[in-house]
Design brief:
The chain is an alpha/beta fold and 230 residues long. It contains 11 helices and 7 strands. A 7-stranded mixed sheet has the order 4-3-2-1-5-6-7. Strand 5 (187-190), helix 10 (196-199) and strand 6 form a beta-alpha-beta unit.
Length: 230
């Protein structure tokens, strides 16, 4: 990004996209893990639930996560509590999200907004959490994992493709086709090797506090690396 506040346009005259991962990119933490700890404090889940979440996170880090198995487990609490209580808890939880934001990354978000970029949150997190977070951060677009609902109640099933690894790209391509957009002059920010399918598609990929695999790939390909949170 340049230093001028002049609006940036693609060669075709459209506003380019700036894509941001959420967990450990914009946030100093994982949104779904934070929600799990929040539910534990409310007495809605037990320590066994948190231990299972830790196991799933290690599988994610190692590239072995079965996303459907994980979601069937993680989404269970949403199916057993009244919606009114879930929404009340979520409002309180969003206060923790505000406190966990990385200032340096949020400055970049504001910079992209000032330059006229079309901001998009691209996260594997579920829509119950991701959509209000996107609104909180003033992202007009969000790609996330969508929970199937029946009779206005949450289920443990996914609607369509989970926004995970290659699923992020598939969901993004569908969005691009639907909106007549392209990835010309696009920027993308992510922290994990799981973000590589997405980051390799944008014109300006940036690794944020990258894990070892993403760091090696970023160094080998001359990508910018951010390791300053404040």
């Amino acid at each position: 990004m340049g230093n001028s506040h002049k609006k940036v346009l693609t060669p075709s005259g459209a506003a380019p996209l700036a894509l941001f991962d959420l967990d450990y990119t914009l946030l100093e933490g994982d949104s779904e893990a934070m929600w799990s700890r929040f539910l534990f404090e409310k007495g809605a889940v037990d320590k066994t639930f948190l231990m299972r979440m830790t196991d799933y996170y290690h599988a994610y880090e190692n590239g072995h996560l079965d996303i459907h198995e994980y979601l069937a487990f993680f989404l269970r609490p949403l199916t057993i509590h009244p919606l009114s209580r879930l929404y009340e808890w979520r409002t309180e939880y969003l206060g923790r999200i505000r406190q966990a934001l990385r200032p340096a990354l949020m400055r970049r978000v504001r910079r992209f907004r000032a330059l006229g970029f079309n901001l998009m949150l691209v996260t594997a997190a579920n829509d119950f959490l991701a959509e209000p977070i996107a609104r909180l951060l003033r992202f007009p677009n969000v790609i996330c994992t969508r929970i199937r609902r029946r009779s206005n109640q949450f289920t443990t099933e996914v609607e369509g493709i989970p926004a995970f690894r290659e699923g992020k790209v598939q969901r993004l391509e569908a969005w691009l086709d639907e909106h007549g957009e392209t990835l010309e002059e696009s920027w993308g920010y992510g922290d994990s090797h799981n973000d590589l399918p997405l980051l390799t598609r944008v014109e300006h990929p940036v690794a944020v506090f990258p894990d070892p695999i993403l760091r090696a790939y970023a160094h080998a390909n001359g990508w910018k690396i951010i390791e300053q949170a404040n």
